[in-house]
Amino acid sequence: MKLWNHRKTEDLGGGWLPGKPGRKFRAGGIIPKLTAAWADRRGKIPGLPGYITENISEELIRLEDLVKIYDTGALKVLGLKRINLTIHRGEFVAIMGQSGSGKSTLMNILGCLDRPSMGHYYLDGVDVAAMGPDELSLIRNRKIGFVFQSFNLISRTSALKNVELPMTYARKGKRFREQRARVLLERVGLGKRAEHMPNELSGGQRQRVAIARALANEPPLLLADEPTGNLDTAASVEIMELFSQLHKEGTTVVVVTHEEEIAAFTERIIRFRDGMVVSDQPNMPRKPRQEKTGSAGMPGQGNTAVPEGEEEPC
Ligand SMILES: Nc1ncnc2c1ncn2[C@@H]1O[C@H](COP(=O)(O)OP(=O)(O)OP(=O)(O)O)[C@@H](O)[C@H]1O
Ligand SMILES: [Mg+2]
Asked: Which of 9, 103, 118, 257 could be 262's S-S partner, Cβ–Cβ 3.0 to 4.6 Å?
């Protein structure tokens, strides 16, 4: 069954114009400066930059018989055992399971930070399982925002600069970066903290900076591996309310958590055990409180961006 369709950029009214190498069109995503002829050739190869995916289904993620084996030399550890899973555009999903059940292994593969040993991972219709590091880096930058338990902010850099970072990787101009970073910080309720260093912020505030950073390049997919793991209850609720809001605005959000109270915010709960999905059920989400976390709204920006997976630790 063909669930997605590729079309060259020209068919969509975007992409490369003959005789104008270096022009970048939104539909084509991040395309290096190439000659038009080269771009035309690349455009015929699915999965490579320059190739347009026009998703005609609502599937954002499809995993087919996905396996991850960690080979530590003497020992082979089966991190994931033949996972088959589909996540649709706009879903708000919790991944739960005991320690060691494979949640982070899954998230790292979904976030293109790691590759499966076997099987297929279709992201937005393109099988990314066999892609090399450079291609995965492009995909991360364009399609995925990742939020970590330990925030992973750069410690000696302001909140503003932290949020700007993925846009620097995406080669956005200085003025654009700063303006957008300020909008995003406003969006997460930290407009007045833009110049603060991470160590001048609370845990919840740091995580909100990390979320703003994850949104920088307008990714359709936001992944968060235990984003509330280092936060108290009040800050955890604020973070989940922010995710709920982003989900309502159209972003697909996948959150790993150990806590039922956190999973209660989502609309679907997938449970893992020993590297396998043992249950996958819809959930009636907990109602967020009235607007709290600075959700002033981002004009024209429902969801955004993803930085590189090249996060630097804080
Ligand atoms: N780099 C690695 N090398 C070898 N084994 C690994 C590696 N990373 C994870 N594993 C193993 O894969 C399995 C799944 O680990 P994973 O980190 O995905 O669990 P998890 O569900 O995220 O656990 P936690 O809730 O503690 O974060 C575990 O048995 C773990 O020991
Ligand atoms: Mg984990």
From this structure: 257
- Site to probe by mutation for ligand 1, drawn from 71, 76, 105, 225 as the one with most ligand atoms within 8 Å of Cβ, is 105
Range of the domain at 266: 89-115+122-282
* 223 and 267 share one domain: yes
Top mutation candidate among 77, 106, 223, 274 for ligand 1, by most atoms within 8 Å of CB: 77
What pLDDT digit, counting tens, does each position of 251-305 carry? 999 999 999 999 999 999 999 999 999 999 999 997 766 544 444 333 223 333 3
Q: 148 with 193, same domain?
A: yes
pLDDT tens string 32-91:
333 333 333 333 334 434 343 444 458 999 999 999 999 988 899 999 999 999 999 999
Between the CA of 80 and the centroid of ligand 1 the distance, in Å, is 9
CATH of the domain at 229: 3.40.50.300
| Length, in residues, of the chain | 314
Q: What is the three-class DSSP state of 227?
A: coil
Shared domain check, 250 and 103: yes
Are 47 and 96 in the same domain?
A: no
Please indicate, yes or no, if residue 267 is contained in any of the structural domains.
yes
Ligand 1: centre distance to CA 70 (Å): 9
Q: Are 90 and 58 in contact (CB under 8 A)?
A: yes
229 within ligand 1 shell (Cβ under 6 A): no
Residue whose Cα lies nearest atom 16 of ligand 1: it is: 102
Please list the alpha-helical segments (H only) found in the chain: 36-42, 103-110, 133-143, 159-169, 174-187, 203-214, 233-248, 260-263
Let me know if residue 297 belongs to a domain: no
Q: Are strands 5-8 and 51-54 parallel, antiparallel or unpaired?
A: antiparallel
Report the domain count for the chain.
2
* 309 CA from centroid of ligand 1 (Å): 19
The reply to whether 255 falls in a domain is yes
Residues 98 and 169 in one domain: yes
Ligand 1 centroid to residue 99 C-alpha, Å: 8
Q: In the Cβ-directed half-sphere of 217, how many Cα atoms lie within 13 Å? A: 28
Domain for residue 165, yes or no?
yes
